[in-house]
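Two records follow; treat each independently.
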Amino acid sequence: MEGGYPKGRIRREDILTAAVAVYGEAGYHGSSLREVAKRAGITHAGLLYYFPTKEALLAAVLERRDADDGVRLRLNAPPGRDVLRHWLALAEHNVANPGIVELYSRLAAEAVAPDHPAHDYFVRHYRIARRSAFETFRVLGERGELRTGVDARTAAVTFMALSDGLQVQWLTKPDEVDLVGVLRHYINTMLAEPI
């Protein structure tokens, strides 16, 4: 339902924005479609017209986040130093938008349960993210741009774990955790020449 009339697209975006706020505050399981509808300024039946299930709304919220990040930060760039720069830009963007980071962190934690509606999304998301990180570190290794002894696969998994773990620490104490600075430091410890 991406196309359609402009009013319908605007209403759909209003619903997604409201869902992000509600999920960020209460998590997926603690939220309701009625609360999302209320925040979006429409009836429950009106929300169901656009998103017939709670799972459909969650999927749309996650897809919008990925699409926004991908377009804005060109996260599909060819493996190499530019990908590392894009990851740092994403971290900078996240620091400026704590609500989406809180939503992502809360949903990622909830979704470890195999029966969670976002479980498969996060399985795919982490698989793709690790593959992208691995390809970037692998290509940098082939070019001689990694420090001696750096294993591309280990560097990729460690980067993904560090990134998500730092987000949680930063959300807890933003004045004590330099999310972007620590990620930049980690990346530079992997590289022969700093970024």
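The next record belongs to a different protein.
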Amino acid sequence: MQGGGLRIYAMLYLLFLYAPIILLPLFAFNSGTIIAFPLKGFTTDWFAQMWENATLRRALMNSLTIAVSSAIFATCLGVFAARASTRFTFPGKGPIMGFIMLPMVLPEIIVSMSLLVVLLGAGVELSILTVILGHTLICMPYAIAILSTAFASLDPSVEEAAYDLGETKWGAFRLITLPLVMPGIISALLISFTISLDEFIIAFFLAGNEPTLPTYIFSQLRFPALVPMIMALGTVLVALSIVLLALGEYFRRRSLARTGSSDTGGFL
């Protein structure tokens, strides 16, 4: 009885969690303009309208620029922080790392308002660059969490052997360490890209007059006639997110396999 109850609970939980996502493609390919059952017919017109929308294309390019830039910056900074936290001991190491990881647990609305006040107080004009700054801040803890596992699982004797053979610290890092943690770096890039692409609150506060994909979707939900097109866009975004998360998980597991560490959990 207890096992049956747990199975029913799990099924209801999964239904509640994924039913809205399953409904996206159903209504995206529905020819009716009203989001309701019964469905009227199959069409791909909403995807065509989505591609022909100039404002949507601009928002997409802005979001891709922000996501790629934020992922690169967050991963590069994450490499330095993860390397320092796993290989060196220095005063205040715990509080410093805790401070760096703080955006992971802080409400995004607090981070957004704080950044907005600081940037406006410093006379910085809101633009795509300010969104990149905010997204780098919130993506970096996730990149550090992935990269810390990759660096911590490396055997220090491998680098020590390179030093004994006359290699410099930079040479050992570039030729030995970096290739071994490369799957973790790719995983951090993909996860950071996904987080930035889907993020709304910081983009809403810091984008100024430049639309991003999430803010554009939010602004269009006021118009019922455009909702099917938004459903089509949501379908594309969900598919892209699943692919990126699957790739990130693949490279994370590949990193664990290359370094010989155990798998203690993942994204999927």
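Discussion point: The longest helix spans residues 54-87. How would you locate this feature using only the token line?
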